[in-house]
Amino acid sequence: MNPYQRTLLAIFSIGLGFSICAAVEQNASSQTASKKALESLNEMIGEWRGTGQLRRGSNSGAWRQSGQFEWDFSSESPAIRYIVNDGKLTTSASITWSRTEKFSLQLLQPDGTKRTYRGDWDEGKLVVISKPDDDGIRYRITLTPLNEKRLLVLHEKTSPSGSSFFRIAEVGNTRAGTRLAIPGGGMRECVVTGGTAQTAVTHNGETYYVCCTGCKQAFEDDPEGIIADFKSRLSERLKTSD
């Protein structure tokens, strides 16, 4: 290799290095933004007991189900998973966020049907809507956290040519177990996401708390980094309160 070729190779290597560093920084920034946006669902994290009703106030066709919302850090971008037992409308769902699409909900139904919904928060409700299917029907899911103990999940759809949505069914969920105190009230806070927590984890003799199995795994994978971020959040909170 002559000197000219070595110079070109060096220039190419430097440029490639800058490109890789920029891509890594952009990806880290995107992950941080996604996690921050998904933290708006922290109130939903945990186990729930639900009653589904085709018509409000009627037990005709009603069913009981249970489910759990939990963080998932196993992929490149964080997500919140929803696993349902004995549900008539949902087997599982995954909620992600991006700057371009906002919230995206990937739904798996008991019959194996998969459907993608997209949307955003609207007056305290997370509203996501699917694109028209082959029959021209759109579907909508509205998640309404009334408080830390109650969560409503409304399923709706349109007629093939209609713009209005009609009720399919609504699941009224009550949080399973004992009521937990809210974060910031001197009680337990998830070291990973800041949500309400009850599961203890330890590192170097210190005890912290997490809200779900996904956060427990994230803590175990990088306890030093998680604790550092947690202490940084606490420091910023104290500055804001001064």
From TrEMBL:
InterPro entries cross-referenced by the UniProt entry: Ferritin-like_SF, RNR-like
Signal peptide: 1-22
UniProt keyword terms in alphabetical order: Signal
GO MF: oxidoreductase activity
Protein name: YHS domain protein
Organism whose genome encodes this protein: Thalassoglobus neptunius
